[in-house]
Design brief:
single chain, mainly alpha, 10 helices, 0% strand, Nop53/GLTSCR2, 5S rRNA binding, Ribosome biogenesis protein NOP53, ribosome biogenesis, nucleus
Length: 402
């Protein structure tokens, strides 16, 4: 009887995949999954009856009757028990060994405190200091801070007594004088700008203008005599470049002999030695000038102290002035002033001067809390004209509409 041959088929096509026997592969993967779920079977039984007597080891500092058993390592347990495999390090890279410097002392690490963290109490309004805003005393508890002061100016500045409803004559005249000085400064500034713009232009006659025009138009044109002479000189230099830079000729009488050169060299060496000797003597004489040096040091320290005082004064003055925080400079608001004829004799006829919101805004700018700002009006958009290109025009709809 002839053994039947195995049927041949192409495994590269999907039709032949069904004819492949994969029972062995399935059984192998089932075993693998079972081991992953349960773990590998133990080589030795989990429990056994110990029939041998325990030998008591004799150790220093250990009482009799106690037996110290060597604990199994994690590597040994992980061979058979699945739960211990997660404790074994999976990386094959050895850990980095850090060698401690014996000369450098170890830093003491504070132990961690477990439990409830102590929270800081929030400040209540009852803990704050209460004072009069007009007296200048702080209304809040003063705190220590490392931040620099922005400004020392008070939040609320007392108004000028001349702005009162019924001011004294002297106070009112003083306020008018201050307002007039501000207006005069503005006028002088405008006059200066106008003078710089229009004052530099001078009137000229027709003949002067014609002469200047001819000079400007004739600039760069060749002149007969001067140009010809310059050309001739350039041609000579181009033909013979040695004539342009002739070498200095030394006569035989002017040449230095060896003895003359040697004497000059010795003279230079003597001068150098004399110069060094003088410098050495100066250094030695400085020992006897200690009093003068001490006076110079004291004078320098005094000068430095004065400079520091000046610097401190400038810093204090800077705190009293508005700083440059943005593109715009701080401008003082207009002084609210009423002329003598505008003063009212009754409260019902009093007119309000200034704006409260603007006053607070200027106060914030003056104390360097916000930067000076200017009103920016909305710009009008340009009227854009839309046109349809000839290539993109829909001719069919145009013809139908017609």
């Amino acid at each position: 009887m002839v053994a039947s041959k195995k049927p041949k088929f192409a495994k590269s096509r999907r039709k032949g995949w069904k004819k492949v026997n994969i029972d062995e592969i399935d059984t192998f993967y089932e075993d693998v999954r079972l081991k992953e779920r349960v773990g590998q079977p133990l080589d030795e039984p989990a429990f056994k009856i110990d029939k041998e007597a325990e030998i008591e080891p004799v150790l220093n500092g250990v009482k009799k009757g106690k037996v110290l058993k060597k604990l199994k390592q994690t590597k040994d347990l992980a061979k058979n028990i699945k739960a211990y495999k997660s404790l074994v390090p999976s990386s094959r890279v050895p850990p980095v060994v850090v060698f401690k410097n014996p000369a450098q002392p170890e830093k003491k690490v504070k132990p961690k405190t477990y439990g409830k963290s102590i929270k800081k109490k929030k400040e209540k309004w009852t803990d704050l200091k209460v004072g009069d805003i007009w007296s200048g005393t702080p209304t809040k508890a003063e705190r220590k801070t490392r931040l620099k002061l922005k400004s020392v100016l008070p939040a609320l500045e007392l108004p000028h007594p001349g702005t009162s409803i019924n001011p004294a004559i002297e106070d009112h005249q003083d306020l008018i004088k201050k307002a007039a000085e501000v207006e005069l400064k503005k006028l002088k500034k405008d006059e200066k700008i106008q003078r710089l713009l229009h004052g530099g232009v001078t009137k000229k006659t027709q003949s002067q203008m014609q002469k200047e025009w001819l000079e400007e138009m004739s600039a760069g044109l060749p002149v007969a005599n001067e140009d010809d002479q310059e050309k001739d000189d350039d041609e000579i230099v181009a033909e013979d470049p040695d004539l342009a830079n002739p070498k200095k000729v030394i006569r035989a009488e002017d040449r230095k002999s060896k003895s003359k050169r040697r004497r000059e060299m010795l003279a230079k060496m003597r001068e150098k030695a004399i110069r060094e000797e003088k410098e050495k003597k100066k250094k030695e004489n400085k020992i006897y000038q200690l009093k003068r040096i001490k006076k110079e040091i004291a004078a320098g320290e005094e000068k430095h102290k004065k400079n520091m005082e000046i610097h401190q004064k400038k810093f204090e003055e800077k705190l009293c002035k508005p700083a440059r925080l943005g593109p715009h400079k701080y401008e003082d608001p207009d002084i609210p002033v009423s002329l003598p004829g505008e003063l009212a004799d009754r409260l019902r006829l009093v007119k309000t001067e200034g704006d409260l919101f603007e006053d607070r805004l200027k106060s914030l700018q003056k104390r360097n809390i916000i930067e000076p700002r200017k009103l920016i009006l909305k710009t009008q958009k340009k009227n854009v004209k839309y046109t349809e290109k000839r290539d993109c025009r829909d001719y069919e709809n145009d013809l139908l509409n017609k």
